[in-house]
Amino acid sequence: MAKGWTDERRVAYSRMMKARKAWAHSTGPRTVEGKKRSSRNAKGNGRRQRLDAELAAIEALMRAWEVVLRGSPRSPYIRSRASDDSNV
Questions:
Q1: Global confidence as pTM
Q2: What is the pLDDT of residues 40-83, one digit of tens each?
Q3: Could you say which DSSP state residue 8 is in?
Q4: How far is residue 21 from each of residues 13, 18, 33, measured CA to CA in Å?
Q5: Cα distances (angstroms) measured from residue 18 to each of 6, 10, 23, 46, 88
Q6: Rounded distance, CA 32 to CA 54, Å?
């Protein structure tokens, strides 16, 4: 038997899932407690919040370096592109 799914198997699985209609039976939480509990699903141990904070700090550093490397008009360290083009 070949690895992976054949076209026939994909079609058969698609038909089976459409016939089953699992999405019609999925209702989500109904009680207030269940809704509160499900709203906290991604907040298990605080890793996500720490990751978001670290990513925000990295993005801020990248924006700052982009200004320095591209040469902000206020940057005394980098010449502007207009002065570089005149030397060519």
A1: 0.34
A2: 877 667 777 888 889 999 998 988 888 888 776 555 554 555 55
A3: H
A4: 12, 5, 27
A5: 18, 12, 9, 38, 65
A6: 33
